[in-house]
UniProtKB/TrEMBL annotation:
Keywords: ATP-binding, Hydrolase, Nucleotide-binding, Signal, Transport. Residues 7-237 form the ABC transporter domain. GO terms for molecular function: hydrolase activity. This is Alpha/beta fold hydrolase. The keyword Repressor does not apply. Belongs to the ABC transporter superfamily.
Length: 238
C-alpha cells in the first residue's frame, strides 16, 4: 500500500534559474520501502543534494511528484513529523550547549517533551561530557554529529541524510555506518547520499546511482556492485 511506502517519486525535475538548459535533476523516479537503507550515489554535481532538498521541501521541483507515506508533498506544506533530515551547515545557537540546542529544537516542533528521545539522540551523537559545553567550542565533526542526532530526534520513520560522513574521521564514519544500519534494522527507513561507492556499499541495502541529474542504475546493492558495471567506473571519486 502506498501509505506504507516511506517515499515514492515520479518524474522529479529541477532546473535552477540561470542554468540555461542544464537540468540539476531530470525525470527522476524511484521508491523506497520500509526497512531499506537507500544510498543515493553519484559524483559531485550529479544532483543528489538537489533531489534530497526537494524531498525535504526546501526547494520546489519544476515537475514531478513526491509522496511521503502516500501523502503528496506540496510546496509550503509543513514537513511531516515522520521525516527527519540532515543537511550540511545546520545552524545551532553557539552560546548554548549541544543538549540545550536539541531541547530547544524539540520544543520548537511542538511535540510533547520526551526525555528518552533526547537521551537517545545524545547517545547517538557520542559527544560525551561535551554535550553540556557551548556549541561554539565544538569541532566541525562534533557539530556534524550533533546535527545528525538532531535529525534523529523523536526517531522519525524516515531519515534523510545528505553526505553525513563528510568531515568525519574514520572511526566516526564507522560509527555513523552502525547508526544507519541499526536505525533501519528496527523497521525504519534511511536515505543517504554519498559520492563514495565503498561507503554506501557497506551500509546500504539498495542504491540509486545518479549522474548528470539522471538515474543511471537502481536496485539492491549486491546487484549493482556485483555487476562489474562500467557505469560505476568514475563514480568513486575523491
Ligand atoms: P555535490 O556532491 O557536489 O553536492 P550533488 O550530486 O549533490 O553534488 P547538486 O548539488 O544537486 O549535486 O547539483 C546538481 C547541479 O545543479 C550541479 O550542476 C550544480 O552546479 C547545480 N546547482 C546546485 N545548486 C544550485 C543553485 N543553487 N543554483 C544553480 N545551480 C545549482
Amino acid at each position: 500500500r502506498l501509505a506504507d511506502m516511506p517515499l515514492r517519486i515520479e518524474g522529479l525535475t529541477k532546473r535552477y534559474a540561470g542554468a540555461g538548459d542544464r537540468y540539476a535533476v531530470r525525470d527522476l523516479s524511484f521508491q523506497v520501502r520500509r526497512g531499506q537503507v537507500l544510498g543515493l550515489l553519484g559524483p559531485n554535481g550529479a544532483g543528489k543534494t538537489t533531489t534530497l532538498r526537494m524531498l525535504m521541501g526546501l526547494i520546489r521541483p519544476d515537475a514531478g511528484e513526491i509522496r511521503l507515506f502516500g501523502h503528496l508533498v506540496t510546496p509550503g506544506a509543513p514537513v511531516l513529523s515522520r521525516v527527519g533530515a540532515f543537511v550540511e551547515g545546520a545552524g545551532f545557537l553557539p552560546h548554548l550547549s549541544g543538549r540545550a540546542n536539541l531541547e530547544l529544537y524539540w520544543a520548537a516542533t511542538g511535540r510533547p517533551a520526551a526525555d528518552a528521545h533526547l537521551a537517545e539522540a545524545l547517545e547517538i551523537a557520542g559527544l560525551g561530557p561535551a554535550v553540556d559545553r557551548a556549541v561554539r567550542t565544538y569541532s566541525q565533526g562534533m557539530r556534524q554529529r550533533l546535527a545528525i542526532a538532531q535529525a534523529m530526534l523523536g526517531l522519525p520513520e524516515l531519515l534523510i541524510l545528505d553526505e553525513p560522513t563528510n568531515g568525519l574521521d574514520p572511526p566516526q564514519i564507522r560509527a555513523m555506518r552502525d547508526v544507519m544500519t541499526g536505525y533501519a534494522a528496527e523497521g525504519r527507513t534511511v536515505i543517504v547520499s554519498s559520492h563514495l561507492l565503498a561507503e554506501v556499499e557497506q551500509t546500504c541495502t539498495h542504491l540509486v546511482v545518479m549522474d548528470g541529474g539522471r538515474l543511471v542504475r537502481s536496485g539492491p546493492v549486491g546487484e549493482i556492485t556485483g555487476s562489474g558495471d562500467t557505469l560505476l567506473v568514475g563514480i568513486d571519486i575523491e
